[in-house]
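Slack export, channel: ligand-projects

TW: morning all. Re-posting the request from yesterday since it got buried. We need the structure predicted with the small molecule present, not the apo form. The ligand is NAP; the SMILES is in the block with the sequence. No rush, but it would help planning for next week.
GE: picking it up
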Amino acid sequence: MSIFSNQALKNEHALITGATGGIGAATAKTLAGMRAAVTITGRNEEKLENVAEDIRSTHPDANICKQLADLGKDSDRETLVEQAEKACGPITLLVNNAGIAGGSTVDELTKDKLESIMDINYTSTVLLTQLVYKKMLKKKRGAIVNVSSLSGLRGTHGNTAYAGSKFALIGFTQSMAVEAIEHGIRVNAVCPGWVDTAMGQQSVENKAARTGTSVEELLQSSVPSGRMSEPEEVANTIAFLLTDAAANIVGESVKISGGTVMR
Ligand SMILES: NC(=O)c1ccc[n+]([C@@H]2O[C@H](COP(=O)([O-])OP(=O)(O)OC[C@H]3O[C@@H](n4cnc5c(N)ncnc54)[C@H](OP(=O)(O)O)[C@@H]3O)[C@@H](O)[C@H]2O)c1
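GE: finished. pasting the full token output, ligand included:
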């Protein structure tokens, strides 16, 4: 059930990356339900179309722009922002959600793997944000949410590349937040624990296999609430941070993890 007014983001235009994935699709639907125009982007055309159809099935009047983009490519990022603004007007909200998992223990980590994770989860995110931010600066308004992770707050076994990229995203969030707020633009991060998406299922299954336990036992023993978060629960937190209800929340890293990490 949504706690948000169906007008809360009227006249806003949200760009959501990774919208073909679990958290991104749920976020796009939630923001469309609050009347934001949404630009959804990912690399998989069929999934992008399915997400748009799903949003329209619940919100028939939704204003949706679809744009394929590989965020690791400079030209794709530039085209994405250009096409989004052409179709739906100035971007006022940005959700940096695209990301990849993977990696290995330090002794087996390859340079290619390290660079690909840092590129998508950090460098490309910063560069896309820079493009959008320069446009937001002209209007002196906007809000940005970066999707980091509990792995952006504490390291875990076999997670060097991913955790490093998500820690970096928190550093970026905090540094940019103090610059951007001078111009009326807010930047925050969310830090989900395990979320019930393809990525989250893989992660919990890997850990269960490594520690010789079942997924159910692992969730019971390591998550105080005893379960993964739903993508919609992360989407609701992102949505809150994008609204004026969060007007004085700046540079924060909000956890959605059923109590997994208490500090
Ligand atoms: N699920 C969890 O347990 C969990 C926990 C903490 C944080 N997170 C973070 O939450 C975010 C979303 O995760 P999710 O669980 O929804 O994952 P997901 O279902 O695997 O979705 C990942 C998304 O990222 C996009 N993406 C990956 N590489 C890309 C690239 N080079 N260019 C453009 N888009 C790219 C994918 O697009 P295509 O498939 O179209 O290529 C997809 O839309 C990620 O940043 C992840 O690190 C997830």
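GE: first-pass observations. Residues 194-228 form one domain. The chain has two domains: 13-193+230-255, 194-228.
TW: perfect, thank you
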